[in-house]
Description:
five-stranded antiparallel β-sheet, 4 helices, 5 strands
Amino acid sequence: MTITRKLNEDEFSACFAHPMSNVTEDDDAVIDIWPYVEAIDLDDLVITSLNDVHHVYRDAHGRYDQVLIGTERRNVFLVIVVDLQAQTVFGHVLLDLNKEYGVSGGHPRTVT
C-alpha cells in the first residue's frame, strides 16, 4: 500500500527555489510516480479525473521536481513533488492557477 501525503502551503512553498527550470523534455525521470498518483483519493481533492503530465519543473538547487498532471478542471493541476536526493515522492498538492495566479482562459501561465 502506497501512503500519500497532502502538502500544506508552507511545505509546498519550501519546495521552490527560483529560478525553477522546465525539465519537461528531459527523459531522466527519477522515479515512477504513477503508483503514488493511483493511491491518491481524488474525492478528497474534489476532482474526478487526471490526464497526462503537462510540465515538470526543477527547483534551482536541484532538490525537488514538481510534476504537474492535468485534471478535468481548466488550469487546475495535481502537483507531485519528487525529492530528488531521496528518490521518492515528498507529497502532493492541488494547484489551481485560476485561484492562485489569476489565470483565466487561454493557456495556463507557468510558474517560473
